[in-house]
Amino acid sequence: MRTAFDVIFYPFIYYQYTINEFVIMKKIYFMWVVFAYILISCSGNTAEHGKHEHEAHEHGHEEHNHDQKEAGEGHAGEISFKNAMAEAVGLQTHKVELGVFTDVIKTSGRVMAAQGKESTVVATVPGVVTFGNLLFVDGTAVRKGQAILSLASSSLPDGNVAAKAKFAYENAKREYERMEALVGDKIVSAKDFEQARLNYENAKVVWEAVAGKQTVNGVSVVSPINGYLKNLQVKEGDYVSVGQPLVTISQNNRLVLRAEVSEKYYHYLPSVQSANFRTPYDNMTYKLSDLGGRLLSYGKASDANSFYVPVTFEFDNKGAIIPGSFVEIYLLAAPMQNVISVPVSALIEEQGVYSVFVRVHEEAYKKVPVTLGADNGSEVQILSGLKAGDEVVTVGAYQIKLASASNAIPAHSHSH
């Protein structure tokens, strides 16, 4: 039941309530509008940012593809290698032609000093070895007449050998001269005179062996020839007796190459005219044709203690070749006509398979598998894989190989 108050004030209260509700709803609607705007703005920025990232990534991918084009796979099987890169690595090529190649027998052997070019120095007096200023090691250069070492005997029980030799010589000389004056008058017998003369001659020989060679360190031992020390057989403080070998002097301006050849190649030996050899200490291949080399002889039978036949050459030592060193030897036998060959530097080896790089056109190369034949240490015969006119890379092949290997990395995958 409504009262007078309700009748008078209810419409006003209801209106006020409606107004408040409308204000609240308006605020809520406004908040939703603001929130939606924020969401739309964020979504737009994210899309724009993703677009920029995608464009940057695509740009980087294009640059990567461009770099690959600089050095990498071109057409099928071809490798792109720009001229600028070729110049930077010093790339060189050689056009293959049919030519003469010498059949090769590969073996091993040794470099030795030529006959008559060595001299063994022996002790002229007994004594203790004393080194002077000369560096007493293998390979030291010496001149004829130069002191190599000294033999000291002053501390030995027999005393100073040089002083004793001088005293004995002077005493024998005086006795000989005295008897020489008396033998004519028959004061001394001819027999005694001959004995005095013999003693004098012996003492003279001993003295002349040490005369002028005395030093504060003892009696000097000198080099009989110009050359280099080799086969040192004594060290400081050793005692040596007369005639004991001390060192060998080698004149290695002329050397001998001795190859040990298996008996199965014996029938090839008459056709052998020259040789190449490779040293282990500098990994260089020397050609006897460049060293004034010549064939001395080849054995007509194998050694008594081995199954190998010796083949001997002589040559000039124009390089730093060490006498006594063991080497790989390539005996050059009968020449072969119409043979394709390439320098050893052109070969690329991968797990026993050999290849070369052939220039197919400007700034493009192709890897070609090859079958090898005879090898003379500097060039190798190609049995298959190449033909006359092919332009083969001789220097820089490994750089091209590395450039092609860099492109074996799989490309990136993208999903946007």
Structural account:
With about 425 residues, this protein is an alpha+beta fold. It is built from five helices and 26 strands. The chain has a seven-stranded antiparallel beta sheet with strand order 16-15-19-4-14-18-17, with no helix packed on it. A five-stranded antiparallel beta sheet has the order 1-2-23-22-21. Helix 3 packs antiparallel against helix 4 (about 190-210). It is elongated. Residues about 5-10, about 10-20, about 45-75 and about 410-415 have low confidence and may be disordered.
**First CA to last CA: what distance?**
72 Å
What is the strand content? 25-35%
Determine Rg (CA atoms, Å). Answer: 48 Å
Largest beta sheet: what is the strand line-up?
16-15-19-4-14-18-17
Q: Name the shape in a single word.
A: elongated
Helix content percent band: 25-40%
Low-confidence segments, ≥5 residues, pLDDT <50?
Answer: 5-10, 12-18, 44-73, 408-416
Number of strands: 26
What class do helices, strands and sheet pairing give? alpha+beta
User: Biggest sheet, in brief?
Assistant: 7 strands, antiparallel
Count of DSSP H/I helices:
5
Mean pLDDT: 78
Sum up the structure in keywords.
single chain, 416 residues, alpha+beta, seven-stranded antiparallel beta sheet, five-stranded antiparallel beta sheet, 35% strand, elongated, disordered C terminus
Sum this structure up briefly:
With 416 residues, the chain is an alpha+beta fold.
List the helices and strands and how they pair.
Elements lengths: L3 H67 E3 L4 E4 L1 H7 L2 E4 L3 E15 L4 E5 L4 E4 L10 E2 L4 E6 L8 H23 L6 H21 L3 E2 L2 E5 L4 E4 L8 E2 L4 E6 L3 E9 L11 E5 L6 E3 L6 E5 L9 E9 L9 E14 L1 E3 L4 E3 L2 E9 L2 E6 L1 E5 L3 E6 L6 E5 L1 H9 L11
Antiparallel strand pairs: 1-2, 2-23, 3-26, 4-14, 4-19, 5-13, 6-8, 6-12, 7-11, 8-10, 9-10, 11-13, 14-18, 15-16, 15-19, 17-18, 20-25, 21-22, 22-23, 24-25
Helix pairs in contact: 3-4
